[in-house]
Specification:
Organism: Hermetia illucens (Black soldier fly)
Shape: globular
Protein name: CHK kinase-like domain-containing protein
Number of helices: 15
Radius of gyration: 22 Å
Length: about 425
């Protein structure tokens, strides 16, 4: 058998036996013979913090068949060393439950609409690993996280996100016992997982960096004073946690939990996006639909779209798809468009979290972020340098000029 690693650092356990188990699971046949494995990296340096992504082309035969070629994406999630802190978040099991249990049922509620790549295989030994279909084969690709998404791309995402949210609401209405699911309470940014201890330091460090820039902006003097008080009194984390916690008044669905550019794959026709699928469901949780929308708005939009088009995106993309999917599923008490807009406003503090913790890393130039990793952030000197760089990018600062005034008008910093 031929194994081509192409000068990539591929773990030893991703061998012939591993992929035979994958193929047996996928095909349902024990008569699998592998002829070749051809590896490449599935993401560039600095693009994934918690996992390593590999792309592999497999040539194999089944009993009585000719050569069959198939492609997989392998997500390896080592939870030791610098990543050990993520063990208690149970991100591997959360993602496994989403791909093998929750997502198929959501897609069923949506007449089998494709929300995410198929998941073929999962194992926890020797390293937590998930194997997916490679969406590059049917023509899907990632957008540019540094630039953010233009209006056309944003419409595609808001449409698919609306359908996903509607599917989650239909599923929760059909199976209310899921409300008590432990795995749907533990997303990376859930009120169970986030605490003043694990969120406070990075949040307030970036607030301090932001204050350093905003203090030079005309018209932001009062906001800067308020932010300095928030920094001094450490009041922001509690406000964020209050926003995240589900309440009886929320429009509750199953949140993706990490809606930013690299977690979307787009399909194109004549250079225009026509569809998208979502990846990376380790942050998923039961929560307000407003959380995902605010997180997406604050992290992933180009400046002009953030400034001019958010209402348009809700009115023309999100809500029509949301309502149509709920109507097809005979959902009771469908929220109005005003209900949705009010929900987004009430949950906007989650957008602040996204803008202060997620956007800085996303908007970094790829040359500056090539060494970004969990290991790098454990080195205080390197982490400080990266933090200073990430909070100095043009998109981060221009986004904050828009968002800070909005968040201040909601009273978030009072």
């Amino acid at each position: 058998m031929i194994i081509q690693k192409n000068n990539n650092n591929i773990p030893e356990y991703l061998d012939e036996q591993f992929f035979k188990e994958v193929l047996v699971t996928q095909t349902g046949s024990e008569d699998v013979k592998i002829f070749s494995l051809d590896f490449s990296m599935g993401s560039s340096a600095g693009e994934n913090y918690l996992s390593f992504i590999y792309r592999v082309q497999v040539v194999y035969t089944l009993k009585g068949s000719g050569n069959i070629e198939t492609n997989f994406i392998v997500k390896s999630i080592p939870l030791d060393g610098a990543r050990e802190a993520f063990v208690e978040l149970d991100i591997f099991n959360s993602e496994k439950v989403m791909y093998f249990d929750i997502l198929p049922r959501i897609e069923s509620c949506l007449d089998n609409m494709k929300i995410a790549p198929k998941c073929y295989y999962v194992t926890s030994k020797p390293i937590a690993t998930i194997v997916f279909e490679d969406m590059k084969v049917p023509g899907y690709s990632i957008a540019d996280r540094v630039k953010g998404l233009d209006l056309d791309h944003s419409k595609i995402i808001l449409t698919k996100l609306a359908q996903y949210h509607a599917g989650g609401m239909l599923l929760l209405e059909k199976e209310p016992s899921l409300t008590a699911s432990a795995q749907l309470k533990r997303g990376i940014f859930s009120s169970v997982s986030l605490t003043p201890t694990n969120m406070g330091k990075p949040l307030y460090m970036n607030v301090s960096r932001l204050v350093g820039h905003a203090s030079k902006w005309y018209g932001y003097e009062k906001i800067v004073d308020k932010l300095q008080d928030c920094y001094k009194n450490e009041t922001l984390v509690d406000k964020i946690l209050d926003t995240i916690r589900p309440s009886p008044d929320d429009i509750l669905g199953i949140c993706h939990g990490d809606c930013w550019v690299n977690n979307f794959l787009f399909k194109y026709k004549e250079d225009l996006p026509i569809d998208a699928v979502f990846v990376d469901f380790q942050g998923s949780m039961r929560g307000s639909i407003g959380l995902d929308i605010n997180y997406f708005f604050a992290s992933s939009l180009q400046i002009d779209v953030l400034h001019n088009n958010r209402d348009q995106l809700i009115e023309e993309a999100y809500y029509p798809a949301f309502r149509a999917a709920l109507e097809r599923g005979f959902y009771k008490n469908i929220p109005t468009i005003q209900n949705v807009k009010d929900e987004i406003k009430r949950k906007a503090m989650f957008g602040f979290l996204s803008s202060i913790l997620v956007l800085p890393a996303i908007a970094m130039n790829k040359e500056d972020s090539a060494d970004n990793s969990v290991e790098t952030f454990k080195d205080e000197e390197k982490a400080k340098k990266i933090g200073d760089l990430s909070c100095s990018s043009e998109r981060f600062l221009e986004s904050q000029k828009i968002l800070l005034k909005e968040y201040d008008s909601y009273g978030f910093f009072d």
